[in-house]
Design brief:
about 600 residues, alpha+beta, about 20% strand, globular
């Protein structure tokens, strides 16, 4: 449970500093600095609240309410603290967490439109903006909080309402953590683990936003220009909120977000898609289609990952004749790219130009693209919104509206966007999570098209020219009983210490073999007595991920070159290093108890 909390907390922290939340930052900053009253104005006494027997003063006010003459600065210091930053962020976290988990269930039970929450959020944002500009509107918004005894809490009512509205409009870049929460909420499968994960994610999201709101408050309190022009600042903040609402309503903010690089994707994948995170998050799903785990995200070769799961549980289709469904079986003989996406996801939007290029270049050669629109938020379920979003992005291939995330779950997906390549026989051969590696994905498309039709004439690649060294270099190789490739010698025995022997003939290029005692597991191979490994490779350098405690003696073409001391958790060790690519025979002699994970070549 603690590991799950930590994963959710870190996932929220990463999300809160990603490009996808930039539209709400100016509002959070300004909302934190706009107090409910003008700076430096003391409250007027209320004669009606005088206790029985209180004598009036010369100005007509009860004596117990007489206002002492004090400098304005003293009034400021003794006044109540501005708690608007906490109220805004609290409202955002409460509404985001609550409606992400239960929004779909509530909307479905009440028979409301799927995008009703988005409209409510936009309406609240406009009302709060008007409240900052027009004090009577703000007093109206604070009325629901008037029964709360603490006066200062009452004053922050509009700030909390603003947070509630922002939470309904908050569309963060989704990774595996938010994906797990979204899937559970969409399917109504809300367990204790999901609730804990959601709360941890919400807290992680709140911390950076709170820092930003507190910074806005500090600027407003410390900078004289802000204190003297508090009324003007409120008008500017209110106007900005109204402009933001209009920008969100007409999708103007997406163009700005698409132009920014996804600078958090690398960190997000390292944390949310780590082995530990996958183990924790996978426990929230069932064991169907486990064969897909044979493939690795963005692998540099085609693999057999099991039969492609069906596209099922679909609400409706667009971009097909008569909006009729597409059956994967009817596409046998073609190469199929299944793209999981959602129209408001900035990462997905940035990937669309590459899909358009591939569709245009390879459709006649047998490539078929199917978009599976798996919504992250309730408003993305509305067919009209998807149709409009697809039209704006230029998506012309068939799109399935996977509103219940049934196909998403079939493919054990964890990311927006995600691309799965299916060969002409209906087998998944490759997938890529998130953005990037477009040249690699295009190379896999071309390889599959050639496998389906060896005589096909393909146009030049749409992306950059392929790296000649990469094409000729020994590919990454895993020491895994399900993912190993190029192995020759004694047949592998799963999870049991076994004695192996090198073959009697020299190893061909890109082939490896074992000698001595080894235990072949799914994640790694473990060395036993007299363990040796031989590998013929081509590259500038060879590297190996090792864990445990022991030594590795490296021989290159029969000559000892170095001895490596291994200690600790899985770490990449450099075995060989040359200035130019070369073909060489590598032999490793390893002490017992080492875990051997994978070779990489540069």
């Amino acid at each position: 449970m603690l590991t799950l909390i930590l994963i959710g907390l870190l996932g929220g922290l990463i999300t809160a500093v990603s490009p996808c939340i930039l539209p709400v930052l100016p509002v959070v900053f300004l909302a934190g600095g706009t107090g409910g009253k003008e700076d430096g104005v003391a409250p007027r006494p209320d004669p009606a609240r005088a206790p029985p027997g209180a004598s009036p003063t010369r100005d007509g006010a009860p004596s117990h309410l007489a206002v002492r003459t004090r400098p304005v600065e003293e009034v400021k210091r003794s006044g109540p603290r501005n708690h608007r930053p906490y109220a805004v962020v609290a409202g955002l976290v409460v509404s985001f967490a609550f409606f992400t988990l239960l929004g779909v269930t509530i909307i479905s039970a009440l028979g409301l439109p799927q995008d009703i929450l988005r409209y409510i959020g936009l309406g609240l944002l406009v009302l709060i903006g008007l409240g900052l500009i027009l004090p009577p509107v703000e007093r109206l918004l604070e009325k629901p909080f008037a029964r709360i005894p603490q006066r200062q809490v009452n004053k922050e009512g509009s700030a909390f309402a603003l947070g509630l509205g922002l939470g309904l409009l908050y569309v963060p870049c989704a990774g595996p953590v938010l994906a797990a929460i979204t899937v559970a909420g969409a399917r109504g499968e809300i367990s204790a683990d999901i609730v804990v994960l959601t709360l941890a994610f919400a807290v992680g999201t709140a911390l950076p936003l709170l820092v930003f709101a507190l910074a806005g408050r500090r600027v407003a309190e410390r900078v004289a220009a802000f204190r003297k022009r508090a009324r003007g600042l409120r008008i500017v903040a209110g106007s900005l909120m109204i402009v933001l609402a209009l920008g969100l309503a007409f999708d103007v903010t997406s163009a700005i977000q698409r132009a920014l690089p996804d600078y958090t994707s690398g960190v997000q994948k390292k944390i949310e898609d780590s082995d530990t995170a996958r183990q924790q998050l996978s426990g929230l799903y069932d064991d169907s289609n486990k064969e897909l785990s044979r493939c690795q995200d963005g692998a540099d070769e085609l693999r057999s990952c099991g039969q492609a799961p069906p596209i099922e549980g679909i609400d409706s289709w667009i971009n097909t004749p008569g909006n009729r469904p597409v059956d994967l079986k009817s596409l046998r003989g073609n190469v199929v790219l299944v793209d999981f996406w959602t129209y408001s996801c900035i990462n997905c939007q940035r990937a669309v130009p590459h899909l358009k290029d591939w569709d245009r270049a390879y459709r006649d050669a047998g490539l078929r693209i199917i978009g599976v629109h798996s919504p992250e938020f309730a408003f993305e379920k509305k067919r009209g919104n998807v149709v409009s979003g697809a039209r704006k992005l230029g998506v012309t291939w068939p799109v399935a509206l996977d509103n219940d995330l049934a196909t998403w779950s079939n493919y054990r997906n964890r990311f927006w966007p995600a691309k799965y390549l299916i060969d002409a026989d209906g087998t998944v051969r490759y997938f890529k999570f998130g953005e990037g590696q477009y040249d690699q994905t295009e190379k896999m498309i071309r390889d599959l098209l050639r496998q389906a039709n060896p005589t096909v004439a393909l146009p030049a690649p749409t992306g950059r020219a392929m790296d000649d060294l990469t094409a000729d270099r020994t590919p990454e190789t895993y020491l895994s009983n399900l993912r190993i490739r190029g192995y020759v010698g004694t047949p592998l025995v799963d999870d049991t210490p076994t004695t192996y022997r090198f073959p009697n003939t020299p190893l061909p290029l890109n082939r490896l073999s074992l000698d001595g005692t080894w235990t072949a597991g799914y994640e790694h191979f473990t060395t036993g007595p007299d363990a040796r490994l031989a590998f013929t490779y081509r590259a500038r350098n060879a590297n190996l991920v090792l864990a445990g405690t022991g030594k590795v003696t490296v021989l290159l073409d029969g000559r000892t070159t170095k001895t490596i001391d291994v200690s600790g958790s899985p770490t990449l060790y450099r075995l060989t290093d040359d200035k130019e690519p070369r073909t060489a025979g590598l032999e490793l002699r390893l002490t017992p108890g080492l875990q051997v994970y994978s070779f990489t070549f540069g």
